Write the structure tokens for this entry.
Amino acid sequence: MRVLVLEAEPGAAEGAVAVLEAASHVIDRCHDSDHPGFPCKAIDAPSDCPLVSGPVDVVLTVRSEERTTTGELEDGVACAIRARVPLVVAGATEGNPYQPWATATVPAGGDVVRACQRAAAAPLPHHSRVGSERLREVLARHGHHEADSAGVEVTRRNGRLRVLLTVPAELSGRVTEAAATHVLAVVHKIDPSARGKDVSVRTIDASVGRPDSVELSVDARGVATHKSGWPWAGRACNSPEGAIRGFSRDGRAMTATEMKPQQGPGDSVSPGDLRRCT
């Protein structure tokens, strides 16, 4: 895990850095040790900004004193909030000005490592809410007005966004693909700096009572691919009979036999096998 560490007062984050490094996490800083205050690295060399030079999984700021104002060395917190990277505030957190944007707070002496790990893995609330709203709008336009189980959960991994759509199993491949396209567009709009997006479509079949899913990787052009490289559009799920059904780009249902020729070298399709495709 890559952690961007900030501090409200000089030296406030030393203990947190030590335990994070002991847990084999990579630490980044906004300021060089010989230039503790303004300017940050990005002023002289924009490419040296940790939020630009590589994927940051979580941002941690440590405060040794209770205060309602920002610290001189916390300038990177605002950048992290704009980049929508999960934020953890640790130490003297009472009255901190970042509370509306913080994924988690850790009191002095708390488990900073665990808090950062959990924050990095947690769903992104704004992304998820906006994605869910767009998904339900698309489903309503296609006549699915009571899709209460439909929703979107977005998380960040290594700079990429993982977008999980939950939709009713009765949706056609065409509607599911349209929904995924619209959700990706709105998620990209609020987080254009993400390094890529991985899309999962999970279907809920009330008659079966279990979810099934297929995962795809989407590049900057919006092209979805299977882990072995062949193009894919639509969704795949286990039917009540246990056989895999897929949907081609034109929405036509495909059997497992029809899907096999499209697999990459060494891949095969069998019942229950098409659950991860990144």
Summary: The longest helix spans residues 173-190. The CA atoms of residues 52 and 154 lie 21 Å apart. The chain is about 25% helix and 25% strand. The chain has a mean pLDDT of 76.
